[in-house]
């Protein structure tokens, strides 16, 4: 009985662990933390693994080293060379594709069946359909296929089929010139048999397109045979006699020297486990505390694994900076010089985190990296202080970069701070003028390297980890960007609307302390989807309103599709994630009210299902910048319909639109507060009053001229706003519902 109860208790514990505890663990983020801890421990524990010979490949030996005993060692370079020579003797093995010939014949049959079907259609539908089906044919051959006499077409069919069948009976290897040679042979044969006419060229085009490789490389078998050949090559051994010179003073270390050191036992480490355990505990505490801080105070960063990986990479790069930096400089660095190298790596890491992740989070992490500097310098707190102060100055200097001169100013600020701290802390340590001068030179050099490394790693890490810097946004804001140029040419009205919206969003973002550059660039691209069908949007219409011929539901569907089209273009042009989010969220789930009201006119009652059909698919704005773009888009579109834009009417319009968005719940998922919304409203009103100011009345003929230019076309009434109409509660110019 007791054994059964014990088994039940163990089963209950197992069930609790499986279904209650383990699912709550975030294994992905736990893996990131584990990798970070492991790498940092390996870096910091390096000083607990002393080597008799610490030289590495590329180093210059400071002394002569001789063999203390006779050993036999493997010549790695010569062995590798012989192995590769043996592997190259094995030719590539190919695998036969049994269905390649059948597929080629089917391709010919399908092509001529499509031609026969198109010939039964009426032009010009037949031409368009055949061009779509046989996209590999040029336009002249598409027309020829429809016009060539039936007997010639039948003859072309037979010749193409016969030539393809003959070619596919031969060997066509995928990674060779076989396919090109067979295509030339088929083309020549078709022209010889049918002549240089439409039928001959048609048969040649269809036949060459149908050809395909019937032999593909069997990489696994080939590589297995080559690997077997490599393993069959015996290692090349050489003998090192005691007393022989291994490396002379001033000689550069090669892989051959490393093999000799290893064979002589000069590189065998003796690990100090107590020190390694202490490093493990300290690093684990730092990583866990940083993870808890990010989870509680930066949830958006915590929810994005790519951002966490970016933080891990930057922190580990900072730790590796000292070891890699000394190798790159090619100098045997002293303790003081290594200290300034830690200052450089920590400062660079702080600037990278500020620009790529968050300046607030960077401030916390550089404090932990300063502790890391003390660990690397055996508890030397002077360099920890310089690292912390220089990093904070660097974070403040590069938080919002706008041009290359900002980098220069950042370098000057960091260099000045490091220089000042070097002298202040040097006076406290009673250093000599010579030592202070040398330290000053290293401080300036490391400041320059920190800024240079920052510029390099920003370019390297930005796109792989999905981060967006102000430098990247400035590139996207250029009118020479291909997508903006296309928007300007295909939908000039939308482009002008986007520019006006960007002015409003920029002013509103600055008013509440949001990222004004992100909001402005987001406005440039928020309506790029209108390029697909520009004539369906009022700002691009010149004469006829195409929506007069469509049903309200179809018009609403076309209008809402510009968000999806915009996202497709954003993916095509590889726009960064924040810009894609603004494109997807700038309408939220707003109601396309203009066409919804038209649809209601033909229905007896309002239904939630009908209303849902006339709403954008969302999602709602998730950031302050996306919320600002939504409001600016709606306000700018509505302001164009005001016939007499007085300050009072503008303020009433802006307030009504913003309140409508709030009542509709469009701002529920972004972090805008009521106070910030009020500031946004004031910024909109201030800018719109300046933009929509009244004009001076021109006398005599000038009045006629300006009246002619200012006259609105009658084909599209002002109230027929189509895009932002979903955002504007207007039924007539300047009159609210």
Give your account of this protein's structure.
This protein is 65% helix and 3% strand. The chain is mainly alpha-helical and 737 residues long. A hairpin with a 2-residue loop joins strand 7 and strand 8 (735-736). The chain is flat. Residues 16-24 and 700-737 have low confidence and may be disordered.
Our measurement of the CA-to-CA distance between the termini, rounded to an integer number of angstroms, reads 79 Å
What percent of residues are in strands? under 5%
Q: Mind telling me which CATH architecture of the domain at 473-593 and 618-692 this is?
A: Orthogonal Bundle
Give the class-level CATH name of the domain at 473-593 and 618-692. Mainly Alpha
Enter the CATH topology name of the domain at 473-593 and 618-692: Hypothetical protein af1432
Radius of gyration from the alpha-carbon trace, in angstroms: 36 Å
- Shape category: flat
The total count of helices amounts to 31
Mean pLDDT: 79
The SS-based structural class is mainly alpha
Q: Which residues sit in consecutive blocks of at least 5 with pLDDT less than 50?
A: 16-24, 700-737
How many strands?
Answer: 8
| Spatial ordering of strands, largest sheet | 1-6
Can you give the helix content as a percent range?
A: 55-70%
> Largest sheet at a glance?
2 strands, antiparallel
């Amino acid at each position: 009985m007791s054994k059964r109860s014990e088994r039940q208790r163990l089963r209950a514990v197992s069930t609790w662990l499986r279904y209650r505890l383990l699912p709550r663990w975030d294994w992905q983020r736990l893996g990131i933390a584990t990798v970070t801890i492991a790498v940092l421990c390996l870096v910091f524990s390096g000083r607990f693994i002393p080597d008799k010979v610490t030289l590495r490949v590329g180093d210059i030996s400071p002394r002569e080293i001789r063999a203390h005993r006779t050993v036999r060692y493997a010549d790695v370079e010569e062995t590798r060379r012989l192995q590769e020579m043996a592997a190259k003797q094995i030719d590539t093995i190919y695998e036969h594709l049994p269905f390649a010939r059948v597929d080629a014949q089917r391709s010919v049959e399908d092509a001529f069946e499509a031609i026969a079907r198109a010939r039964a259609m009426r032009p010009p539908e037949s031409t368009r359909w055949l061009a779509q089906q046989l996209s590999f044919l040029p336009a002249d051959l598409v027309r020829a296929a429809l016009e060539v006499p039936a007997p010639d077409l039948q003859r072309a069919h037979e010749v193409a089929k016969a030539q393809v069948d003959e070619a596919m009976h031969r060997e066509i290897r995928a990674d060779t010139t076989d396919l090109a040679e067979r295509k030339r042979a088929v083309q020549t044969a078709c022209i010889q048999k049918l002549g240089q006419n439409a039928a001959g060229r048609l048969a040649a085009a269809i036949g060459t397109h149908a050809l395909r490789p019937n032999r593909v490389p069997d990489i696994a078998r080939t590589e297995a045979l080559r690997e077997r050949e490599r393993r069959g090559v015996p290692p090349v051994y050489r003998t090192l006699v005691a007393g022989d010179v291994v490396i002379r003073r001033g000689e550069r270390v090669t892989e051959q020297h490393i093999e000799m050191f290893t064979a002589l036992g000069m590189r065998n480490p003796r690990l100090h486990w107590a020190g390694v355990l202490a490093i493990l505990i300290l690093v684990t505490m730092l990583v866990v505390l940083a993870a808890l801080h990010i989870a509680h105070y930066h949830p958006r960063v915590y929810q994005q694994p790519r951002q966490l990986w970016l933080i891990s990479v930057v922190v580990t790069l900072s730790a590796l900076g000292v070891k890699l930096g000394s190798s790159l400089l090619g100098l045997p660095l002293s303790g003081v010089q290594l200290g300034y190298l830690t200052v450089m790596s920590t400062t660079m890491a702080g600037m990278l985190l500020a620009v790529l992740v968050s300046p607030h989070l960077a401030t916390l992490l550089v404090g932990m990296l300063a502790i890391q500097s003390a660990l690397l310098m055996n508890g030397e707190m002077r360099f920890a202080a310089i690292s912390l102060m220089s990093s904070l100055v660097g974070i403040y200097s590069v938080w919002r970069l706008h041009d290359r001169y900002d980098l220069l100013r950042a370098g000057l600020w960091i260099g000045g701070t490091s220089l000042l701290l070097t002298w202040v802390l040097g006076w406290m340590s009673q250093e000599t003028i010579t030592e202070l001068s040398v330290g000053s030179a290293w401080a300036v050099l490391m400041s320059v390297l920190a800024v240079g490394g920052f510029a390099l790693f920003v370019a390297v890490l930005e796109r792989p980890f999905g981060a967006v810097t102000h430098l990247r946004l400035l590139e996207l804001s250029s009118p020479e960007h291909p997508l903006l140029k296309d928007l300007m040419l295909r939908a000039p009205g939308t482009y002008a609307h986007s520019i006006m919206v960007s002015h409003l969003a920029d002013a509103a973002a600055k008013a509440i302390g949001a990222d004004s550059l992100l909001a402005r660039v987001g406005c440039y691209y928020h309506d790029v989807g209108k390029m697909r069908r520009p004539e369906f949007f009022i700002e691009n219409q010149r004469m006829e309103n195409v929506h007069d011929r469509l049903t309200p539901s179809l018009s609403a569907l076309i209008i809402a599709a510009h968000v999806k089209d915009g996202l497709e273009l954003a993916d095509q042009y590889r726009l960064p994630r924040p810009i894609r989010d603004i494109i997807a969220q700038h309408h939220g789930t707003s109601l396309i009210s203009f066409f919804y009201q038209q649809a209601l006119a033909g229905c007896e009652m309002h239904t939630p299902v009908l209303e849902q059909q006339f709403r954008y698919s969302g999602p709602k704005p998730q950031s302050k910048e996306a919320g600002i773009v939504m409001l600016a888009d709606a306000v700018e579109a509505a302001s164009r319909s005001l016939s007499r834009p007085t300050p009072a009417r503008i303020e009433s319009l802006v307030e009504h639109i913003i309140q409508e968005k709030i009542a509709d719940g469009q701002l529920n998922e972004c972090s805008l507060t009521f106070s910030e919304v009020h500031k946004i409203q004031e910024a909109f009103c201030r800018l719109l009053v300046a933009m929509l100011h009244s004009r001076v009345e021109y006398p005599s003929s000038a009045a006629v001229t300006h009246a002619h230019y200012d006259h609105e076309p009658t084909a599209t009434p002002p109230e027929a706003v189509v895009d932002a109409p979903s955002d504007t509660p207007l039924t007539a110019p300047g009159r609210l519902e």
